[in-house]
Structures are given as C-alpha cells and as structure tokens.
Write a structure and sequence with these properties.
The chain is of the alpha+beta class. The protein has a single domain, classed as Rossmann fold, CATH 3.40.50. The chain is built from six helices and four strands; from the N terminus they run H-E-H-H-E-H-H-E-E-H. A four-stranded mixed β-sheet has the order 1-2-3-4. Strand 3 and strand 4 form a beta hairpin. Helix 3 runs parallel beside helix 6. The longest helix is centred in the last third of the chain and has 35 residues. The mean pLDDT is 82.
C-alpha cells in the first residue's frame, strides 16, 4: 500500500504543466534597416475587449504589449518627430473548444496521467493594422488572419487556465510578425507618404 501511495504521489508531482513564459508574450527583435519614422502607437482597446470579453482578461494586456513592442522594436525608429499613427484592432476573434477532451478525465484520470490532453482551445483572429499620416489619411492597411490550437495536458501541455492565453499570444505574435514583413517591404513608399 505504501508503494502505491508513493507511486501516485510521485506521478502527481511529475505531472506539472507548462505555463505561459516571457518569450511567449514578447516579439523577437529583428535587426532592420527599413524602419518607418516615429509613429504614435494606438491600440484599439474597444475591439480587443470585444474579442476578449472576460473581465480583467490578461489577453487584452498581452495583445497590447505584443503590438507595442513589435512596433517599437521592429517597425519604427526610436527617435524623431512623430509623422503619423499606427493603429491595431482585432476585427474578428473566436475561440473553439473540442468537447471530446472534456470527457477524457471521466475515465478515472488514467488517460490524463498518460499525457492525453484534457482540454484544448483553438483561436482564430483577424488582426488589422492601419498606418495614417498626421492628417489622419490612411496610408496603408494590413490585415492578417491567424489561428492556433493549444492543449492542456500533463507533462507537455499548458494548464487549463493558460491554454487560451497561450493561443491568443501565439496568434498575436504570428499576425504582427507577418504584418511587420509586409510593412518592411512597403517601407520606402510609406516613408514617402508620411513626409
């Protein structure tokens, strides 16, 4: 009996899940010679809160943080006169859950102890970025559709509370990275229109 209790205790201690890390919430800094002039960063809080409806949802702050850092580090210059605005909004967002994972723990947690996922979150986002000059004329509009699925599972997945946050962070990072590449390609034309 003592061996069984010791074995179960050991399994429970080893069954920790991953958590959302600093790297999950921060874009990679990419050296870039094609930077735009200084722009005022304007996240559209209303559109972000419309997608992440839970009160005090960390995903709102995560989305704003990823957008702000991506723009500051990889899209625009750090110093100089402001030449316009860059605005980010989430124009569509949906989170789906596969119900099959909810019945997995019903089997006395044996599959869960073996690492079978017990929850998942698939998130679909449409992220829109607008670049405007000082007169509020739209210079460029970029839209990116992204989706990601994350799992809650012992040993390799995230805990149930972090699954949606991780999926949202990955989606935002992927969308902003794709938009950054498109902005960098259009940078000479955008700079000319921002003067």
């Amino acid at each position: 009996m003592k061996k069984i209790v010791a074995l179960l205790t050991g399994l429970l201690l080893l069954s920790s899940c991953r958590s959302v890390s600093y790297d999950d919430l921060n874009p990679t800094i990419q050296p870039n010679d094609n930077l735009l002039p200084v722009l005022e960063i304007r996240p559209d809080y209303a559109s972000i809160r419309a997608v992440y409806t839970s009160k005090g949802d960390e995903r709102v702050a995560d989305a704003v943080n990823i957008f702000t850092k991506e723009v500051r580090e990889n899209i625009m210059q750090q110093t100089g006169e402001k030449k316009g605005n860059i605005t980010m909004r989430i124009s569509y967002g949906k989170t789906n859950h596969n119900k099959i994972y909810e019945i997995t723990p019903g089997f006395i947690y044996i599959p869960t102890l073996l690492g079978v996922p017990y929850y998942n979150a698939e998130q679909i986002l449409e992220v829109e970025v607008l670049i405007q000059n000082k007169h509020k004329d739209v210079i460029r509009r970029y839209t990116e559709n992204v989706s990601d699925t994350e799992y809650a599972a012992m040993y390799w997945g995230y805990n149930k509370g972090d699954v949606q946050r991780k999926a949202a962070a990955i989606n935002m990072k992927n969308a902003m990275e794709n938009i950054r590449h498109r902005i960098n390609n259009d940078a000479p034309e955008i700079r000319a229109k921002l003067k």
